[in-house]
Amino acid sequence: MAEFKKGLVSVILPFYNCEEFMYRALSGLLNQSYKNIQIIILNDGSTDKTEEYFFKEYIDKFKSENFLVDYHYHTNVGLAKTFNIGLKHVKGEYLTWIDPDDFLDINAIKYKVDFLNKNKSYSFVRNNAKVVNENNIDKIVHVLKSNKNEFIFEDLLLERKMPLCAGNYLLRTDVFFKCLHNRNIIDKYRSQNWPSLLPIAYKNKCGYIDEVLNTIVIRNSSMSADSSYNEVMFRLSEHEVLLNDVLDYIGAYEYKNEVNKKYTSTKLIQAVKFNNKSDIIKYSKKGNNIKAKLSLLLYRLGISNLIWCKKNV
Fold it and tell me: Is 217 in a helix, a strand, or coil?
């Protein structure tokens, strides 16, 4: 592990046009009780004044706290490709990444470093997160709690009480890079979380700190409650393909059938919600979980548009 600096935590922060809210992530990092941090800031071709804001308001503050600061600008290539650029600059024994509109609790990094230092058999560690709305970040909308499993690959893959949020995980860099091909995650898609966490979770133990150490901010512009049926189904299909590509990437072919069943059922649920009769027929032949069967039953009873159905199915 001589390649990585002992005790140093590398934090990847990719961004694109975030001048209005990136201060939250930057202030959260600056205020960490653990100070041995390399911050890798990746400007994915922003056209606003985020870069100017960072250098004016934060660069000197980070340097005064002895942070290692790596700032990189490149033409716009998307989040996952930007993340891969960041991986090339990682110097720390430990690695995490955050979104520019979220922020860490003051002890988020310290508690996870302490855990991994004391528990050598774990390759990474996670914590809980709270969800807030940008209009009132002091009011908790929801708490994302994990189960207590140590091997979390299936829970991540099938979304079984295992939050997959940037900022929630701290990884041993050497173990993580051994799980990747040439220090690259799959970068054909918009997400970096699934292609990063599934490879290390496949055969490695993950610790758990049962505390809220991360805040996820829901921005009004990112809310998708009014998405059309086609948009919802496109995202589901895209995500299904992403997961299958990751399974190919790590050789976990035995899980492909489970992914297929999960997304068949999920698409049936959405078809019922939107009352798309042709897709209801298509997916009802394959959907096999309780929630999907309940959706189909409600549809057949003619009550698929009731408020209860919309909220619970």
Answer: strand
